[in-house]
Amino acid sequence: MTDLTDLTLADARARLRAREISATELTEAHLSAIAAHNPRLNAYITLTADLARAQASAADAALAAGNAGPLTGIPLGIKDLFCTKGVRTTAGSRILADFVPPYESTVTANLLRDGAVFLGKTNLDEFAMGSSNMTSAFGPVENPWLRRGSNAALVPGGSSGGSVAAVAARLAMGATATDTGGSIRQPAAFCGLAGIKPTYGRCSRFGIIAFASSLDQAGPVARTVQDCAILLRSMAGFDPKDSTSADQTVPDFEAALGRGVRGLRIGVPTEYRVPGTNPEITAIWEKGLAWLLAEGADIIDVSLPHTKYGLATYYIIAPAEASSNLARYDGVRFGLRDAEPNDDLIGLYEHTRARGFGSEVQRRILIGTYVLSAGYYDAYYLKAQKLRALIARDFTNAFAQVDALLTPTAPTAAFAMGEKMDDPIAMYLNDVFTVPASIAGVPAMSIPAALNQDGLPLGLQVIGNSFDEETVFAVAAALERAAGFAARPGQ
Q: By residue range, what is the domain housing residue 200?
């Protein structure tokens, strides 16, 4: 039964439809794996074993009746930022530790519509703020990978660290994630997975607990590019409940995987050659370009001149939006209420928020409140919004010349717990390659490409034009075939 957890999502789908395995067997195999490994990895905050078994039983009935949906019987992890009706949803924060939503997010409702089985809610950096998954109120997530010759625990990346750790460790076949500045792509690279941030508006944000509303976007993580394509087709779609949802037809992303790259123009952004980038990452970037060239693509140098301001722009806009969004957690309407006996209303706010929010969330709220305050709005926030428009224009100009861009995903491989933890700036620099695509709202995907000298995964990032995820998938699939990445944790 354990071998069932090694199946890719696409393989499991085929075997379920052929009735070679049952959804119940597949679900029980994953529940057993969670029981064995989650105590160490801490990938799940809340397990929903009874719900999963009931959904698996319903999936088997649908399969027997010939009524299978695109994901019938597939066990998934759900990032604990997606509201799930009747199931605790915490956002990795003490302030929402006991929150049980009375409604379902659109993305998870779409997955349920298509027959998915939900194993539980995966851990994350508190309110998705972090690049290490060390800021969760429910404890850090451990990366299932280890450096050769070392037992030092590594971070899985963030904020979607629980989702990627669960999939990499075979505790789920795929998982939902969210990406605000790199929170799908960076942890996917750290854990040897594929993960895509689709175009802003491709997936509904309804029912996703907000961090930065103009940047947050849902997407999948899985072990293969094909599995991501399958999941994204179910997750995506127009939603009238989300004013930023795009009324765009959802293509068959899976069909784009075999297109190949012959004749495509692949751009190499000059500004992504950042000093101090690990030489192994630079080398795998060059190898990725060589793979695409060998497959018939043309490699073209392009310039994104304003992307050097990407991190600074992001760390003004995102905290500003976080300050606004997190103002709703006041101890009055829902969530934690933590007040002293003689507190007035201001005291209630102060004690609830001081005890409910962790240090990283408090830091970002303070930064955001500062840049929105009188006298600083024009100097910081308004200027950042102007820079955002220039960064987006850089991508528009680049895609007039090329079909996709290829870059590294992260400047380093996974680092050990405790490294960089005391330096917020060093932590923020983990997103240097991922933030610009988020600011521009364009799709971007990380693909595992190689192991470094310590035996840890390195990822390459494919960036595409708005609503052209099909080209992103085509390029990613070509890279995946060329890389032949088959390593897994513990091997």
A: 2-260+413-483
Instruction: Answer yes or no: is 376 within a domain.
Output: no
User: Does residue 442 lie in a domain region?
Assistant: yes
CA-CA-CA-CA dihedral for 148, 152, 157, 160, to nearest 10: 110
Q: Which residues contact 329 (CB under 8 A, 6 or more apart)?
A: 95, 96, 335, 336, 352, 353, 356, 357
Residue 217 lies in a domain: yes
Evaluate whether residue 465 is within a structural domain.
yes
Task: Check if 183 is active-site.
Answer: yes
Catalytic residue among 22, 105, 131, 159: 159
Please check whether residue 355 is in contact with residue 335, taking contact to mean a CB–CB distance below 8 angstroms. Answer: no
Model confidence pLDDT, tens digit, residues 234-278: 999 999 999 999 999 999 999 999 999 999 999 999 999 877 778
Residues 18-67: tens digit of each pLDDT: 999 999 999 999 999 999 999 999 999 999 999 999 999 999 999 999 99
pTM for this model (two decimals): 0.96
Residue from 93, 105, 131, 183 carrying the catalytic annotation:
183
Q: What CATH number corresponds to the domain at position 466?
A: 3.90.1300.10
In the chain, the number of structural domains is 1
Query: Is there a catalytic annotation at residue 466?
Result: no
